[in-house]
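Case 319 in the screening queue. Each case pairs one protein sequence with one candidate compound; here the compound is NAP. For every case the pipeline is the same: read the inputs, emit a complex structure as tokens, and attach any notable structural observations.

Predict complex for case 319.
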Amino acid sequence: MTREPAAGAAPGLPTVAIVGCGRIARVHAANLAPRARLAFTSRSSESAQALAARFSGEPLAGFDEALERPDVAAVAICSPVEHHTAQTVAALEAGKSVLVEKPMAQSRAEVEAIGRALIGRPPGSLMVAENYLYKPSLGRLRAWLPEIGPLRRVRISKLTRQQPSDWRVGHGALLEGGIHFVALLGAIVGAEPAAVRADFPGAGDPERHASLELEYPSGARGEIRYGWDTPSLPGGILQHSFVEGEDGRIVFESNGLYLALRAGRGFGFRLGPLADFMGFGAMARDFLGSVRNPARRPRSDFDTARRDLEVVFRAYDTR
Ligand SMILES: NC(=O)c1ccc[n+]([C@@H]2O[C@H](COP(=O)([O-])OP(=O)(O)OC[C@H]3O[C@@H](n4cnc5c(N)ncnc54)[C@H](OP(=O)(O)O)[C@@H]3O)[C@@H](O)[C@H]2O)c1
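Case 319 output:
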């Protein structure tokens, strides 16, 4: 497919169409804007025009225009999850590089549909916007893992009070928000669990609280407590998670604000770097690297997202 710069485009900058112009679209636009030309399409033309004006981009007539224009190299899908699969498949089939928001899909059938659309395409064709994989605190934590020896247990906890009033009302807390912590656990352990047990305390369907126990082939165990039904400090700050190995332990504030290491006689303490604290900047750079060179596999690729979503689906299977 030919990718020609639009008239007036800064030479060398790829054009990225942002699809769905709500809250997270603003974050991606801010991080992509210094390195890409931006175009915007949403359900309503008002939302697309507002973001185009704010980020000196171009409003599009609709999603189809993003697919049809040869100068649009990539799309960043920022719509609610129920639209992710159809929009991702259409964009891949139009030859675009895709960044799709988390959760990539809402069922195994949707994951398979995206997998089919990827057959024969280079590994950089699809990236999932799982920013937890790009948080600098995860980098620090992983650098400490060799110090604590073989992993025994990882326990991640984030319990907040969140009462969705938008499209999130129809989605479970585990799929919509807990997926970040499933991805974090997956990045720490780096393996598929052999067993997944789940409990969904409290009333309600979809669930507002999930408690997961995972067993890995190595014998390591993972635990996730995630909820939208628990009064907490803003942002759920000052809750703690643990990584235990045979030779030591890492404790971290669950958002990554700080981390502490105890291994043998050694002790370490680090504030999570505040620069790019949520990882969105690093994520945008990884995405644009794969837009420029689709043979390059991004860190948050399809296989990683499929592995992590499968944990969510296995948890839901137990209900
Ligand atoms: N990584 C993170 O930390 C993070 C944080 C927040 C959200 N997210 C994810 O990002 C996605 C969007 O969440 P959000 O908070 O940005 O939601 P939001 O604020 O409600 O924005 C969604 C936008 O998508 C537009 N839209 C709805 N249906 C569409 C369609 N069929 N085609 C194109 N646009 C459509 C909406 O319409 P209008 O045109 O009417 O405005 C709205 O502007 C979700 O998957 C969510 O899980 C991730």
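Case 319 observations:
- The chain has two domains: 15-131, 136-277.
- The mean pLDDT is 95.
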